[in-house]
Amino acid sequence: MSERTIHVFRKGLRLHDNPTLLGALASSSALFPVYVLDREFMQRVMRVGALRWRFILQSLEDLDGHLRALGSRLYVLRGSMLVVLRELVTRWGVTQISYDTEVEPHYTCMDCEIQTLAQEHGLKTYTCVSHTLYDAKRVIKANGGSPPLTYKKFLHVLSVLGEPEKPAREITTEDFLRCVTPPDPNHEQEFGIPSLSDLDVPDEFEVLWPGGETHALKRLEKHFQSQGWVANFSKPRTVLNSLLPSTTGLSPYLSLGCLSVRTFYHKLNSIYAQSKNHSLPPVSLQGQLLWREFFYTVASATPNFTQMQGNPICLQISWSQNPEALEKWKTGQTGFPWIDAIMTQIQQEGWIHHLARHAVACFLTRGDLWISWEEGMKVFQEYLLDADYSVNAGNWMWLSASAFFHKYTRIFCPVRFGRRTDPEGQYLRKYLPVLKNFPSQYIYEPWKAPEDVQLSAGCIIGKDYPRPMVCHIEASQRNLALMRQVRSEQENTAQLTRDVSDDPMEVGLKRELQEEEGLLEGAEPHSVSKHFSASADHQSRHWTPETPHRY
Ligand code: FAD
Ligand code: MG
User: Fold this and answer.
1) Candidates 261, 288, 382: which one to mutate for ligand 1, based on the most atoms within 8 Å of Cβ?
2) Which of 43, 118, 222, 323 has its CA 20 to 30 A from that of 480?
3) What is the pLDDT at residue 504?
4) What would the pLDDT profile of 470-492 be if each residue is shown by its tens digit?
5) Do β-strands 124-126 and 3-9 pair in parallel, antiparallel, or remain unpaired?
6) What's the pLDDT score for residue 175?
7) Which residue owns the Cα nearest ligand 1 atom 20?
């Protein structure tokens, strides 16, 4: 009860299930909740874009509100973590620093610096794992010292370890009566939360995902009112282009730690216990949380996880350098409405459905443009509210078939994939208003519309909306051949993360369903003719290449 503690919030912007804060409070007579806003770090390392800035500031406001209700305050400081902490330690007579353990290299590096600072000043440190269900080190130890590289092996290790810890008890006013936050009369001026305009961050788009613990818990509660939906959740059956999220939409809150993954997981357990039947990993809701856990575990022990070079599990591929094509993809100017609508949604809203992520990631990498997954990952980092070091990189390696995913002959069709579940193109009309008057027949392939149709839709392809930047059939065939070559040359690397049952689109689902959902392009080597006939609808004679000399 005698320490004077700085509790550093990094992720974990919440009071529920916060064992680090709880432990720090128990050992202290004074505690300062601190958030260090290091712009350089957030821009250079985290690539925080405008929407995520807003989400973070809202989450800080919410956290401050919760702390106030308990008689405390959040102290927000600007500058680099170490410089700020060094100054505060002296100023506040601090004897202990507490913070959640994180696994990303930029955080473990920061942790080492905090430890060094603590040693220099004779301070204690207090830290717990709170962003994942398990301590990744424990999982790795149980697997013999290396991370399990397939989901199946991972689940096996977890079955040996048993259920994850229960959430920590709630923090109450009594905790802040025993351990106070000394007030500062200058709080607002010196430690207030900056606004977006203070930070020169543009605030262009409507708030669809308000940040903070309050909204996270509300969203969780809302979903848990539909017990049947929660119990029967099956990821591949959720609708990818519905106008409102068809999955929980909890990822932004999980990624910043506004929502505890342990709270989510154990609530699912209680619903499963009350249900006669429930879905199972990998497609169940708990299975989704375990995918997150899987990528965190692998990332924590894989060097250079977010890049190809020096990454032992990642296929080494000569991706093409094409900044112009990358820019078209990023800005939604590919000429494929399905791809462009998704890229518009992500840029304006900061969240897209998992299968929409599949579509644009496959298109950028092994499907059409043959551009490195690292480039796509960086764009996602900037745009996504849920941008996450381990999960983002892991999924990009998956989609580009650089690791984890091995059915690389399956290439998503940028026309048929979206059309299966939204034949009228409502989703396209919402995000690409320039196309909104096209008849449904042409909306996924407006370049095929006769001139009079384009005229009456008020949109001339090639002028008001771009022509397709590639011929999908040609590009995907060429890329498939390249990928086949890479995989035969690097068979050993490919095998490291291979497990047929890892593909959530495979397990528990019959082939009919995959076909029904338009996931199969049928590009297996033995079915080339089928491939061409099945895809004739976007290889039509109306297709006009974008290169000027050809039209
Ligand atoms: P739900 O289906 O409701 O799932 C609940 C939670 O489980 C999610 O919030 C998330 O924490 C976790 N989860 C779900 N799917 C996955 C998955 N495939 N891998 C790991 N965890 C998962 N998710 C991120 O949180 N951050 C990212 O940066 C990110 N980048 C991605 C990049 C690509 C190319 C792809 C294909 C997927 C990426 N995902 C990422 C995974 C997934 O698309 C999102 O987690 C999910 O769509 C978020 O929506 P939800 O919360 O409604 O998910
Ligand atoms: Mg969901």
Assistant:
1) 288
2) 323
3) 55
4) 999 999 999 999 999 999 999 99
5) unpaired
6) 97
7) 292
The rounded distance, in Å, linking the Cα atoms of 394 and 377 is 10
Task: Give mean pLDDT, residues 349-363.
Answer: 97
pLDDT of 501:
61
User: Angle 144-147-150 (CA atoms, 0-180°, nearest 5)?
Assistant: 115
- Rounded to the nearest angstrom, the distance between the alpha carbon of 234 and the centre of ligand 2 is 9
Distance from residue 233's CA to the centre of ligand 2 (Å): 8
For residue 136, report the phi and psi dihedrals to the nearest 5 degrees: -55, -35
The residues, any chain, with a CB within 8 Å of residue 23's CB and separated by 6 or more, are 98, 126, 128
In the DSSP assignment, the letter for residue 502 is G
DSSP letter, residue 363: I
Rounded mean pLDDT, 9-36: 98
Distance CA 287, CA 303 (A): 26
CA distance 135 to 142: 11
Centre of ligand 1 to C-alpha 396, Å, is: 11
Tokens of 60: 């800080």
For the whole model, what pTM was predicted? 0.92
* Residue ranges with CB less than 5 Å from ion ligand 2: 247-248
Sign, CA dihedral 30-35-40-42, equals: positive
CA gap 368, 413 in Å, rounded: 9
Tens of pLDDT, residues 219-228: 999 999 999 9
The whole-chain average pLDDT of the chain stands at 91
Please classify residue 10 by burial: count the beta carbons closer than 10 Å to its beta carbon, then call 0-12 exposed, 13-18 middle and 19+ buried: middle
Q: Torsion angle of alpha carbons 443, 449, 455, 461, nearest 10°?
A: 80
Residue whose structure tokens are 């979903």: 223
Question: pLDDT value at position 151?
Answer: 96
* Ligand 1 atom nearest residue 361's Cα: 34
Report the pLDDT value the prediction gives residue 155, as an integer from 0 to 100: 97
Amino acid at 405: F
Question: What contacts 134, CB < 8 A, 6 or more positions away?
Answer: 158, 161, 164, 293, 297
Contact, 213 vs 11, CB < 8 A? Answer: no
Dist CA 142 CA 100 (whole Å): 22
Amino acid, res. 214: T
pLDDT of residue 183: 94
Distance (Å, whole) CA 544 – CA 474: 13
Tell me what pLDDT residue 244 has.
85
Strands 96-99 and 3-9: parallel
Say yes or no to pLDDT of 531 above 80: no
> Residue 5 is encoded by which pair of tokens?
């503690």
* Beta partners for residue 35, in sequence order: 9, 76
User: What single-letter amino acid sits at 167?
Assistant: P
